[in-house]
Specification:
Chains A, B: Pathway: Amino-acid biosynthesis; L-threonine biosynthesis; L-threonine from L-aspartate: step 3/5; Amino-acid biosynthesis; L-methionine biosynthesis via de novo pathway; L-homoserine from L-aspartate: step 3/3. 2 copies of one chain form a homodimer. Chain A has 329 residues and is α/β, with parallel strands linked by helices. The first copy, chain A, has 12 helices and 12 strands. At the A-B interface, helix 6, strand 12 and helix 12 of A face helix 6, strand 12 and helix 12 of B. Strand 12 of chain A pairs antiparallel with strand 12 of chain B, so a sheet runs across the interface.
Chain lengths: 329, 329
């Protein structure tokens, strides 16, 4: 039996709760909090009841219990930090993760802020406390990309990572090419379908893709980078004519993120790519090619977002920790 | 430091030896054997010298030392079994693996025979002896597919696996479509390039792909299957006209292996697939789509064969075991 504290009960947190219930996983949630309320219950929070309360617009727990209360007072093996990302300060997630690591608790997170901004510190803190910090869900949703690089092709030197890291941009580009829509029309459609936020800056200007590059560079490629190191061009200035020109050559345009460690390059930009290229995926999919010295080119394609898909990555990390560290498992 | 015994010094075994030398991995080979000779040396076999002997057509070691001598007498942490596959009897690899597991040694293998024919027995033997049996290299070369399914998306239920599992067939089909070659012409070209054996039956009749399906079914999907359970049609009867017909519909033909666990289906057959389908890869590449309940569809593309690529998978497994089990690591 694994005991987790779950911070964040929005789309991702609820996706995790639903997966635990639906699959009957041997996981007990001993602490739960959203930004407004929390519950600490060593006997196990009633997840179905919390989901029901939240879906009726209520709080998930008691207004007197904060996320930090859960971090510091609940009894758990693993903190699951899935609150919304703040790429400027990484807070409040950074404080939650530090607090759990200092208590000697493992951490699994989908929150890009702390991993992009403070990985060296957090990793050192985890090591000093003999626990693990896992973050598969921060990059490319359901694709087990970090697992693949850290374990599957361990022993390889990675010479380049290149891919489609943002599903919102990929959806917009797919629709502009397929229907001749303008950027504004395709963005409006993406908003209607819930693929784009009211303020789409974070996605369409390549910030989200850039943050993912920073995470891969700092955690896998032993680089020390920040978002400022990413050369970044978004898709917001692309015209339907540019897509048509690409189309005329059996090509299309994709927002490609690229890391070349040896050259110190991190770059996000729209690029013309042949339609048969493995990175040309449709709709909200993500696709990443990893160039490795022994394995050669490996390409991974899958869903980069979504509550169930993110839950998949979080649960993979939980089971990874359980198989190695959790007592009595 | 990790001590391995290496059985098999053909293309794969030499690829592993070269990777150990080139990357300066902290691995000592305390036993080495091919079918004709062997060496046992607790201080570490001189791999460069063994490679040089072999490349001059000589034996890798002493004619008086057999592979079984190495299994039983060498001091090692992990047996690396990369002798040629026999899909009928799995021997002599099966005996080597049993011998190592009984001695309480971990095993890493690229040999499909023992995993396809005797996985339940070998796994039980490994568990009884508190050691690991890893076999990433048996399916799709450098693609860390088994890692991804066992660890990356742990917690998911896999509902279907579908893919291009044989690079030789994929090369032949790619060339038939691109150049209008007949099957015989494309096969001759594949032979010239070393992609096809003198007797191509194993590849072109779908036996190799079928064996890989059996391995995935038995080791990942908890099925109990043999090659006889695989509905199997090869590519040897395909005409250029069939490929042209597919082409006329913006499609092509690929040899697709498929497992649907719930229906008990294992199937290898040429299928018409749209050219933009993620499984339509070129040349000798492999591509596999895994359908999982939480993660959705995940597609993996990479090199399915080659000595360096297979070494990548073997070394990934070695480091996996080392990070968990080898003393002093």
């Amino acid at each position: 039996m694994m005991r987790i504290a779950l911070l964040g009960f929005g789309s991702v947190g609820r996706g995790i709760a639903r997966a635990i219930l639906a699959k009957g996983l041997d996981i007990t949630v001993t602490g739960l909090a959203d930004s407004r309320s929390g519950i600490i219950d060593a006997g196990g929070v009633d997840l179905a009841a919390a989901l029901a309360r939240k879906e009726q617009g209520g709080p998930c727990g008691n207004p007197g219990v904060s996320p930090m209360d859960v971090v510091e007072k609940a009894e758990y093996d693993i903190l699951v930090e899935v609150t919304p990302t703040d790429v400027e300060t990484a807070e409040p997630a950074l404080g939650h993760i530090r607090g759990a690591l200092r208590r000697g608790k493992h951490v699994v997170t989908s929150n890009k802020g702390p991993i992009a901004l403070a990985y060296p510190e957090l990793r050192a803190l985890a090591e000093a406390n003999g626990v693990l910090l896992k973050y598969e869900a921060t990059v490319c949703g359901a694709i087990p990309l970090i697992h693949a690089m850290q374990e599957g092709i361990a022993g390889n030197t990675i010479t380049r990572i290149c891919g489609v890291f943002n599903g919102t941009c990929n959806y917009i580009l797919t629709r502009m090419a397929a229907e001749g829509l303008t950027y504004e029309q395709a963005l409006a459609e993406a908003r209607d379908l819930g693929y784009a936020e009211a303020d789409p800056t974070y996605d369409v200007e390549g910030i989200d893709a850039g943050i993912k590059l920073v995470i891969l560079a700092n955690t896998i490629l032993h680089m020390e980078t920040t978002l400022d190191d990413v050369e970044r061009t978004g898709i917001n200035l692309l015209s339907p004519e540019a897509l048509q020109l690409a189309e005329d050559q059996d090509c299309t345009i994709r927002l490609i993120g690229e890391i070349i460690p040896e050259a110190g390059v991190l770059r996000v930009s729209p690029r013309i790519v042949p339609k048969v290229h493995p990175l040309v995926v449709e709709g909200t999919l993500n696709a990443v090619t990893v160039e490795a010295d022994l394995a050669g080119d490996l390409t991974f394609v899958g869903k980069g977002a979504g509550s169930t898909e993110t839950a998949s990555a979080v649960i993979g990390d939980l089971l990874y920790i359980q198989s190695r560290h959790v007592q009595g498992s």
